[in-house]
Specification:
This protein is of the alpha/beta class and 425 residues long. It starts with a strand and ends with a strand. It has three domains: 162 residues, 3-Layer(aba) Sandwich (Adenylosuccinate Synthetase, Chain A, domain 1); 93 residues, Adenylosuccinate Synthetase, subunit A, domain 2 (Orthogonal Bundle); 159 residues, Adenylosuccinate Synthetase, subunit A, domain 3 (Adenylosuccinate Synthetase, Chain A, domain 3). The chain is globular. Strand 3 and strand 4 form a beta hairpin. Helix 5 crosses helix 6. The strands form five sheets. It has a ten-stranded mixed β-sheet with strand order 9-7-5-2-10-1-11-15-19-20, sandwiched between helices. Strands 14, 16, 17 and 18 form a four-stranded mixed β-sheet that branches. Strands 3-4 form a two-stranded antiparallel sheet. Bound molecules: guanosine-5'-diphosphate (GDP), 6-O-phosphoryl inosine monophosphate and magnesium ion.
Length: 425
């Protein structure tokens, strides 16, 4: 069974937790896009693990973990993370693989990311994670990027020198400090040796695994509304976190995919700038942030919080072809008198948008249309069977499902591994 898992909103839906849960039945877990901008949290016992580049499946011994060709990988972030994973007691040898076709995020990409963000005027800022993601993908599609395989070539350090010179022109134009090419060469030299053992032809590895009947789990990072094509452009990341990206980012054909699971938080959050129709700037928003621990796993920034947006979720269902939903964080809503679901955006002339508009400017003229449902006012984190949930909690979940389509597969009622209800998957 080969499963693609994607985020349905603006990220941080709980993908890490659900991947960890599904890895039990998988043999290979592959990241197919994004980079260390991701922050995927897995809670096991009293330990909290946050993963950025390494697939969240790594916490299961023996499972293979792959950085696919669609990822942009910062070698320093990765080395740090690999050391951390080993310090947690997990063995990586023989089961961690980096695509030689993946592109690298270099120090100058990070510097350009920050300089570009600083240069953007108010209202145009994206609020990037500063991890160099945009410039690394720009280099990739501009055909001047550096692939992981390049570190194996004898001219690697000459290429570093040439690229630094080029990048310095961009940095100077942005009013930022240039980088020292020789310093960069010194920085990257030891890295080459450290990463070499993991670099391989992962396309070959993926296909051998599939031919041997292994189960593959495709771990999406970011989410549908951050997709460079489908999201709230330009307030997006620079990759395709939607289901199609799983194929282009791993070298596996769409024919090999058996199902798509969408991860859907039962309210909405967003980190960084950009439109967010159901955002709450009041006490309810504060309650969601406090109860949900809504602070960025990568940057520590407080996440913007709001009610569940069925327009976004329905759009995500279609774009990804979601078969099953993994709904998360139901418990965060436990203390509300009433809970709201946004079913459309009403424009000032009365027109109601049922699908997410491409032109973000129209959102300034829209108000969300809400349905209000009674809350359940009791703790749900201890519940282990769907039938045992309070009736109003079930009604809320079922109304969401009715509005967005797809089936319910997993329901999460807390951060810990055990607080996961398997329903239809
Ligand atoms: P990801 O980026 O989609 O993997 O999500 P993050 O890890 O960035 O953020 C999700 C946060 O919610 C993490 O702190 C998780 O431990 C936590 N979490 C996941 N599922 C649940 C849940 O059902 N209830 C609660 N209360 N927390 C959850
Ligand atoms: P996970 O995988 C939430 C957001 C940033 C910014 C925009 C562009 O943990 O869900 P980038 O650094 O990618 O150029 O930033 O995208 N962003 C995320 N928001 N979760 C993430 O990942 C994100 N990765 C990027 O905040 O608004
Ligand atoms: Mg996250």
């Amino acid at each position: 069974m080969n499963t693609v898992l994607v985020g349905a909103q603006w990220g941080d839906e709980g993908k890490g937790k659900v991947i960890d849960f599904l890895t039990e039945e998988a043999d290979v877990v592959v990241r197919f896009q994004g980079g260390s901008n991701a922050g995927h949290t897995v809670v096991v016992g009293d330990k909290k693990y946050v993963l950025h580049l390494v697939p969240s499946g790594v916490l299961h011994e023996g499972k293979h973990c792959v950085i696919g060709n669609g990822v942009v990988m910062d070698p320093f972030d990765l080395m740090k993370e690999l050391e951390q994973v080993e310090s947690w007691g997990f063995e990586l040898k023989g089961r961690f693989h980096i695509s030689e076709r993946a592109h690298m995020v270099m120090q100058w990409h990070r510097a350009i990311d920050r300089a570009e963000e600083a240069a953007r005027p108010a209202g145009r800022k994206i609020g990037t994670t500063g991890r160099g993601i945009g410039p690394a993908y720009a280099a990739k599609v501009g055909r001047y990027g550096m692939r992981v395989g390049d570190i194996l070539k004898p001219n690697f350090l000459d290429v570093v020198r040439a690229q630094v010179e080029e990048a310095n022109r961009a940095l100077e134009a942005l009013g930022a400090h240039p980088l020292d090419a020789e310093e960069m060469v010194k920085l990257y030299t030891p890295m080459v040796a450290a990463l070499m053992p993991y670099v391989t032809d992962t396309i070959q590895f993926m296909h051998e695994s599939l031919e041997a009947g292994k189960s593959v789990l495709f771990e999406g990072a970011q989410a549908t509304m951050l997709d460079v094509d489908f999201g709230t452009y330009p307030f997006v990341t620079s990759s395709n976190p939607t289901a199609g990206g799983a194929c282009t980012g791993s070298g596996v054909s769409p024919r090999a995919i058996d199902r798509v699971i969408g991860v859907l938080k039962l309210y909405t959050t967003r980190v960084g700038e950009g439109p967010f129709p159901t955002e709450l700037k009041d006490a309810d928003g504060e309650t969601l942030r406090r109860r949900g621990g809504e602070f960025g796993a990568t940057t520590g920034r407080p996440r913007r919080c709001g009610w569940f947006d069925a327009v976004v979720a329905r759009y995500a269902q279609r774009v990804n072809g979601v078969d099953f939903w993994a709904m998360t964080k139901l418990d965060v809503l436990d203390e509300f008198e009433t809970v709201k679901i946004c079913t459309g955006y009403r424009r000032d002339d009365g027109f109601v948008y049922q699908t997410f508009p491409a032109d973000l400017a129209v959102l300034d003229r829209c108000e969300p249309v809400y349905e209000e449902l009674p809350g359940w006012k009791c703790e749900t984190s201890h519940v282990t069977r769907y039938e045992d949930l309070p009736e109003n909690a079930r009604k809320y979940v079922e109304r969401v499902l009715e509005l967005v389509g797809g089936k319910l597969g997993v329901l999460s009622v807390g951060p810990a591994r055990e607080t996961t209800l398997r329903i239809g998957v």
